[in-house]
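Hello K.,

You asked for the raw outputs rather than the summary table, so here they are, unedited. I folded two proteins back to back in the same session to keep the settings identical. This is the first:
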Amino acid sequence: MIEKTYDVITYGRSSIDLYSANIGADFVDIQAFNAYVGGSPLNMAVGTKRLGLRSALITGIGQDQIGDFLLNFLLKEGVETKFIPRKPGFRTSAVILGIQPPDNFPLVYYRENCADSKVTIDDVINANIGACRLFEISATALNVEPTRSAGFFAAEEAVKNKVPILIDLDFRADQWHDARSFGVTTRAYLRNCTIALGTEEEILATMLSDPNQIKIKNQQISAPEILGDVNSAIKNIMALGIEALIVKRGAKGSSVFLKNGEIIDVPGFRVEVMNVLGAGDAFASGFIYGYLNGWDWFKCCRMGNACGAILVTKPGCSNFNPTLEEAMNFIEEHGGF
């Protein structure tokens, strides 16, 4: 049996996040930005590490100062960085975000010539997926080659070594040449997975077959509205063989759909929202912490809800993930588990 060096290895995108320093300002009126780090798998690596897990990240960065910025942050956080190769000729990703609470967060991705899309099978071999207790992948990592094949290879390695796989559905419509290809690819990957995690919109996108089901919000294809029958989509995803589907519902909490047909609803926490970006990654971090500590589904999601609720009161993602003490104190102050 392979020794478990890490509790969790996360896989996928990483970026510098430039978030508006002028809270509430229209995007065209922003005067300054704060520099943070982001990308769903990076956020989860940091989030789980702050909760006390041994966390590693597989991503790619450029031979540039933005890559240095990310590595410097991750090293200070104690996240394992030796599986983050430099990709010559490619750029570390960037994201620019406006913050207009409670429900307008205009977002622009800069992922052309993107280093984290150049992760290879050899990079995955170097990480030794069998040496972790849980493997997490964000579906955006499956949008192009070579990171797609490397992601499927990682799943093979996880299955072979009986490592549970959690997929964050992470739907970003503008990162796919056809929004329907997100569903085709993700459904194929789900057949390897133990747990899937996503919003209702992402669940609908996973089963998307008609492009007319997409409506664009605020002129942003990265934040569309997906029209369809959520219950039917959930049933179809469960039929792919996963043990559990976790549905994130924001302030309403979360729901767990189990393969035996059981549904567990978990209440959320009402807080004043500053920025919703990264809340789902904080949820996943709290959920993973509970899962790897053997908690029941309700308690895992309650922990996830708490971490997400804490983060939406902050102006950024990874930089503001809660510690275990902060999360537990928050839960205690809001009625406990």
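The second followed immediately with the same parameters:
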Amino acid sequence: MNYEKDRVTIYQVAKASGVSLATVSRVINKQGSVTPATRKKVEDTIARLGYRPSSLAQSLATNRTTNIGVVIPSANYVFISNVLAGITEVARERGYLLTLFATTHSREEALASIEKVISSHVDGVIVFDDQLSKDDVSVITSYNVPAVIIDEQVSGDIVANIHLSYDPLLTSFIKQYYSRRGNKAMSFLHVHNAGRLLQHAEKSFIRNHNELGKEYNIINCDDSYTRTYAQFLEYFKTNRSGLFVCYRDSIGAAVMNAATDSGLNVPNDVEILTLIGTKYARICRPVLSCFHIDMEEVGKRSMYMLIDLINNQLQERTATFDATYSIGESTVDRRGLDPDYK
């Protein structure tokens, strides 16, 4: 029998018992408050399904290996690889080994990664994955594994959080664009399964337009340069102007190149703003205007915080990285944003 394939998971136990993942973890580890009836229901389910918690996971609190788990989406994205570069630099400096758990946009695969983290001999974990909920991440900490969570707020005695702040800057950009007599209709490019960061930005985009009484467009597109470029070649046959808020540099470049190849001028006809700017924004011609957070610094901070958390020395459990506006040539206004604008 293939053990890895057929092994019953903690998620199956929780679903069959009708309780949360955290409750199952408390029963398994004999920690926290669980009613006798709930405990019996979970224990009966464990016996019926044949679930076997990892002995490695249950011994994590007392047996350290200087090994850190890192849960991230595919490192193909530049901003993800920058985070990983920062983590790696500090790990090398402090003498820690890294075990990488790379996922895709599949929630099932992300949950499988949590199972692997639990059964691996790690001292702590850094999680930067949009597919995992607070409850999912709490399962890790219920096994006494310290965790630093990037871009999600999870509470706990052995949890620290890093918040990536884009929304206030996007709000300022939208309000100041219209106050400065920006006259192009704004469109937000919705990428399926792009994660929480883009979801938060899209909600902010919609909310601000509703508050200002301005019309807007939501355009669905693939997370692919080639397909987005082809899509906007068609789009610009009938739509000859607009300001487009794009998820990443490659999507912004696709829109910009499609506009240029359609005989439109950037930024006079078409303006483009990229939410997650990287070094590639500077390579594009015209240079893309973008929001920027130093993701390598995010990776470094997450690793330093985790080491202090492991050693019970972490004072501040939350760190915030605010995006800045890098003014390029793909937007008309070159004055930047007034931080005091209301």
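The first strand starts at residue 67 and ends at 73.

Happy to rerun anything if the numbers look odd on your end.

Regards,
P.
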